[in-house]
Write a structure and sequence with these properties.
The structure is a homodimer of 304-residue chains.
Chain A (H helix, E strand, L loop, with lengths): L2 E8 L13 E8 L1 E9 L3 H8 L6 E5 L5 H4 L2 H10 L6 E5 L3 H6 L11 E5 L8 E5 L3 E8 L5 E8 L2 E4 L1 H6 L6 H10 L1 E4 L2 E4 L4 E4 L3 E4 L7 H7 L2 E7 L17 H7 L5 E7 L9 H6 L6 E3 L5 E3 L1
């Protein structure tokens, strides 16, 4: 179905490094036309987009996971640049505590010249929220467990009924768009006196699912939203819990490995990597028995 | 006297490019010990410092010229990183309208763990303000003409009285620290019955002066503070005024060339370069008859 292109613009944790910028993930969904979203927007995201060859004018919506600086400090600069570039189309910004977004965007002398819609994303309870619904996919959220109110986001592509052309042919029906349309709309068609039902000549193509954990410990809500994901982009600040004196509300690689044995996830990309891990050899060694686990890099691209 | 090292961390105007980050200038003054200041702090400054091999923990004071996003949006991230790194030393932040700094640093969930001192820099009138005075230099400011309240900063090294050892020797005085000290403190010394005055055996070494215009049109206040500067770091957003439909409160290269014929300035570095100028050949051609004019680049270093 749709082509989903995920670009990692920043894969650092709280302190950036020469190789890793602050968190931001660009997602382009293409079916008929391209729709671009941004998940988190750490400091420097607009320049990372330049380096990645991505166009900030195409971003329709921005989703922020929580109010720690590494996840939102690129937002005002990006909005200003959109304004300088003459954007007219409204921009929707989804965050927990949206009044903070308003304050953030009103500190300096600047008015964007386009409408900004501030949307609240609930950061408590265990309900999966539907934030966006298009013809082809939904954007969902659920609260997760961090040191401050935080959420996880998911893009869930809708399942689609596809006509099985071979079956159609075997029943003698011509391959015509009109026939496909009638079958899809009316669920059946009468052809040469014979009633043919949609389910007899079709199959369901399962939509894809991508989950971005944001900053969180492994928790029940994350499990709930991650089931059957094709791609889980997972906070993995700690390679070893013993490396940290304090619980900063993140997941360790051991916890992630344990987690993915309990949820059905096709591929997991570890991100939000602490600066202390300069040499990734040890981590790679640790995860080598999980071929579906990978470590994010800035500018890494995944196509689903 | 002191060694002054200026590092350009960002030389773009409102929209950054792959080659130019948002404005920030690092200044290290070394005499006995090193003192590091930052002038403006555009988005991405902390990572630019990493690339430049500069240590953000050494920054004692930060001076912001005005409240346009390209000049301040790197501040909260830098302050957070200083906090994560365990800074204990207070940090003084100088800005016009300092209440904006307080709001900016209080949007997310973060408390720095060190004291932040918010200092007001007057952005009206034509008085030169003395913001900082150390044994060796002063930091001055004056309001300038931009579209919003804005200031210009200057580091002015103090003149120093230096003993002329040759003259001392010719008068038969021994080269001893004690003699230098008495001469400097008491302005004269009696040696073998003969009175010797400080001015007879000393000379004045002129201190250096560096001016950073911030964003401004060429104006009287800029002229006032720039007289006799060794280095003027000058807003030059426009290479040609005809390139812009509107007056955004910046200087053009023609105006700068005209200006430096009226003020005595040893060297001028043009910065805050609009994204539209990708090819600098034309500008270089334009300024070639001014050998003391240069165009800034990110990571350029000047030692005075």
């Amino acid at each position: 179905m749709g082509k989903i292109e995920v670009t990692f613009l920043g894969t650092a944790a709280g302190i950036p490094t020469k190789k890793r910028a602050h968190p931001a993930i660009h997602l382009a969904y293409t079916l008929d036309k391209e729709v671009c979203y941004l998940f988190d927007c750490g400091e420097g995201t607009q320049r990372q987009m330049l380096f990645a060859g991505l166009n900030f004018m195409k971003i329709k919506k921005i989703f922020i996971t929580h109010w720690h600086g590494d996840h939102y400090l690129g937002l005002p600069g990006l909005v200003e640049t959109m304004g300088f570039e003459g954007r007219k189309e409204p921009l929707t910004i989804y965050t927990p505590e949206p009044e903070r977004t308003k304050t953030l965007l009103s500190i300096g002398y600047f008015s964007p010249g386009f409408e900004i819609l501030y949307r609240n994303v609930p950061a408590e309870g265990s309900k999966i929220e539907k934030l966006v619904e298009t013809d082809y996919f939904e954007i969902l959220s659920i609260s997760v467990e961090h040191t401050v109110p935080a959420v996880c986001y998911a893009l869930v592509e809708k399942d689609r009924v596809r006509i099985d052309k071979e079956k159609l042919k075997s029943l003698g029906l011509p391959e015509k768009d009109k026939i496909y349309r009638i079958l899809k709309e009316e669920k059946e068609i009468v052809f040469k006196g014979k009633k043919i039902k949609l389910e007899d000549v079709s199959f369901v193509e399962k939509g894809k699912k991508i989950v971005y954990s944001g900053d969180t410990r492994i928790c029940e809500n994350l499990k709930k939203i991650s089931q059957n994901a094709d791609l889980l982009i997972q906070d993995c600040t700690y390679f070893d819990l013993n490396d940290f004196e304090q619980d900063y509300g993140h997941a360790s690689v051991e916890e992630v490995m344990d987690f993915i044995e309990k949820v059905n996830v096709k591929k997991v990309i570890l991100t939000h990597i602490s600066r202390r891990y300069k040499n990734l050899k040890d981590l790679k060694e640790k995860i080598k028995k999980y071929p579906n686990l990978e470590i994010a890099k800035d500018f890494m691209r995944i196509i689903l």
